[in-house]
Amino acid sequence: MKLKGSLLVLIGAASFGFTPIFVKKGFEYGYTLGQLNITQMVIAFVLLWVLCLFKRVSIKDMNRKDALQVMLTGTSVGLTGIFYYGAMQYLPASLAIILLFQFVWVGMIYEWIFSKSKPTKINMISMVVTLTGVFFASDVFQGEVLDLPGMGILLGFLSAITYAGFIFFSGIVAPKTDPVLRSWFMVTGSTILILIVFMKDIPTIQMTDGRLWVVGAGIALVGAVIPPLFFAGGAPHISGRLANVLGSVELPVAIISAMVILSETVTLLQWLGILLIICAILINEFGGKLMYSYREAVDRSG
Fold it and tell me: How far is the C-alpha of 238 from the C-alpha of 234, rounded, in Å?
């Protein structure tokens, strides 16, 4: 089950790495943040509802308490979409994803608050390496970071906070419930939130605008259907820290897709920063075990 869970989380994370392609194209076509989020969530809601019918699962299979908790967890998906896609209105997709990846150390804070697990020395080293990676990845040496809109930086960081919450809570809320049903409740909570936040954008959506619905379907599949569905199926079978490690595949996928499809330029220093961020994740997850093994080996030899 651990191998299956790891594979599901890996696929879910890789899928989310393709969202910048559809979001950026949507902005190029002149669609608003609200229009993209609304169409994304409506399509995701319908697709998951159809999957529930196909699997013959019913909302009665989940009690009210679990349903409410899962829906609240789902709001983190909606908030991540608002903040992450919003950041891409101001920033290159490659930088927006780097800011999103601050969930690596933000996740430590969630574990500290909700699991009473204080950050260790390894965790702190990981945080320093992460921030160093961001320093390089933001291309600060060319001074471009100073010209970036503050709103884009803020939205990117907020997306890290909400994404870390999604990863943390998706592994502990109603873990024994059918993954499709859990995902439907998550997207339901997210859809309600999006419709409330972007209420004024609802009348601007034209049912006959095929291009909008195609873009929305792309965002829905890689951003709101596959990630929560696969995380819901895989996260309960692995540790939260392993989920973070596997989730790191999203970073190179997003960066490479931004380079190849969106023609964004990524320098060698930025690649160094990206590598450091991935190393920070590995340090955070495996550094403690390696240090413990090293100490045991020293004690035995002594």
Answer: 7
User: What does DSSP assign to residue 224?
Assistant: I
Q: What count of other Cβ atoms lies within 10 Å of the Cβ of residue 51?
A: 17
C-alpha 218/C-alpha 214 separation (Å) is 6
Longest dimension (CA), the chain: 76
pLDDT of residue 297: 57
Structural domain boundaries of the chain?
Answer: 2-101+150-264
Supply the DSSP symbol for 203: G
Rounded Cα distance between 139 and 269, Å, is 7
As a whole number, mean pLDDT of residues 130-149 equals 68
Q: Looking at residues 28-39, what average pLDDT do you find?
A: 95
Collapsing DSSP to helix, strand or coil, 30 comes out as: coil
- Is 70 exceeded by the pLDDT of residue 145? no
pLDDT number for residue 22: 93
The alpha carbon of 189 is separated from its chain's Cα centroid by a whole number of angstroms, namely: 16
Q: Give the global pTM.
A: 0.82
Q: What's the full length of the chain, in residues?
A: 302
- CA 277 and chain centroid, separation: 15
CA atoms within 13 A on the CB side of 32: 12
Which residues touch 155 (CB under 8 Å, ≥6 apart)? 83, 84, 86, 87, 90
